[in-house]
């Protein structure tokens, strides 16, 4: 699916009704929030802080007119399912989810409580929603990616590191995969790899041991690079990937600016600051009476390109000047 096809039909980001911004009533409203990461993951903490900040600007004050109940999936399917069941049992006014697995876990628990998702990748490809412009059922939200962006990741990696002839795409088959255990981004990557004459190699992993063994095996042959597919690995696994990439001198690309700041070479994907702030306006809208069907799924309007020059130096890579000039941010 091309990006323009994905966008077509949803209309302007401003198409959903603008609700009156009067101060919320003092009746305490309840938001449940389920994320796929662990509670102590710094990225998870920053995302929750952005969401809370957005709500505060809209007049919602925790402890006065708002309560937020948090649950953390910690990239564990059983824990994610349990968290979804617990939140639904609390009867919140809306449940906010971060990631595909938490969103689908809550959908299996309730068809009545409104769900606002943030950062689920391509919601059509993953089956989170069937209609972007007018979501059916109880689910809408703000997404960060579309499936065809995977081809762009490979193009960018190849431009930054022309020597790359083999690319490994790293992902967890237990999170956000198809029924066959494949990443929804696989076909777009393989198509781009054929066009660029690059060998595409799947690197699924379910635990740290598998991750280390797979990347070590991949790096045994020269001229490789890594694309780390959504959903994001845990903080520990991200650190392992970055350490192995430097050890084996493998250029990497991730989906978000935060991952480049952590040590990835390149990041390219939706602006999560914008995504979480928009998610807070959707939650606010529902608390004020908006219907899910009136809130179209929003795509990212900003897709920044971020390059970490410290990582480039660590892996002995000289990035072409023309590529650096295209970056929205260069970490030095």
Give an overview of the whole structure.
- The chain has 332 residues and is of the alpha/beta class.
- It folds into 2 domains: 3-145 and 271-294, Response regulator (Rossmann fold, 3-Layer(aba) Sandwich); 149-269 and 304-331, Response regulator (Rossmann fold, 3-Layer(aba) Sandwich).
- Helix content is 38%, strand content 17%.
- The strands form 2 sheets. The chain has a 7-stranded mixed beta sheet with strand order 7-6-8-9-10-11-12, with helices on both faces.
- Helix 4 links the parallel strand 3 and strand 4.
- Helix 2 (42-57) crosses helix 10 (272-287) and helix 7 packs parallel to helix 8.
- It is elongated and about 60 Å long.
- The two termini are 35 Å apart.
List keywords for this structure.
332 residues, alpha/beta, Rossmann fold, 2 domains, seven-stranded mixed β-sheet, 12 strands, 38% helix, 17% strand, disordered N terminus
């Amino acid at each position: 699916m091309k990006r323009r096809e994905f966008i077509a039909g949803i209309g302007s980001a401003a198409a959903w009704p603008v609700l009156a911004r009067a101060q919320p009533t003092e009746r305490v409203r309840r938001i449940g929030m389920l994320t796929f990461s662990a509670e102590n993951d710094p990225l998870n903490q920053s995302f929750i802080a952005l969401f809370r900040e957005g709500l505060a600007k809209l007049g919602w004050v925790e402890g006065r007119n708002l309560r937020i109940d948090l649950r953390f999936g910690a990239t564990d399917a059983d824990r994610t399912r349990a968290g979804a069941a617990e939140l639904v049992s609390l009867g919140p006014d809306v449940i906010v989810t971060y990631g595909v697995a938490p969103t689908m876990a809550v959908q299996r628990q309730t068809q009545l409580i409104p769900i606002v998702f943030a950062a689920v990748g391509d919601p059509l490809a993953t089956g989170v929603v069937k209609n972007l412009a007018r979501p059916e059922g109880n689910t809408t939200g703000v997404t960060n990616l579309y499936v065809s962006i995977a081809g762009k990741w490979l193009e960018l990696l190849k431009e930054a590191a022309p020597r790359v002839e083999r690319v490994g795409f790293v992902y967890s088959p237990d999170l956000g995969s198809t029924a066959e255990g494949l990443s929804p981004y696989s076909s777009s990557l393989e198509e781009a790899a054929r066009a660029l004459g690059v060998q595409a190699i799947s690197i699924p992993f379910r635990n740290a041991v598998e991750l280390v063994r797979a990347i070590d095996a991949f790096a045994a042959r020269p001229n490789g690079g890594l694309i780390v597919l959504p959903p994001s690995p845990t903080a520990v696994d991200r650190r392992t990937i970055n350490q192995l990439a430097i050890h084996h001198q493998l250029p990497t690309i991730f989906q978000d600016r935060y991952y480049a700041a952590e040590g990835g070479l390149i990041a390219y994907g939706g602006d999560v600051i914008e995504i979480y702030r928009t998610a807070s306006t959707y939650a606010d809208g529902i608390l004020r009476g908006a219907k899910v069907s009136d809130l179209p799924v929003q795509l990212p309007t900003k897709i920044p390109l971020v390059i970490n020059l410290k990582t480039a130096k660590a892996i002995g890579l000289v990035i072409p000047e023309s590529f650096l000039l295209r970056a929205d941010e260069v970490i030095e």
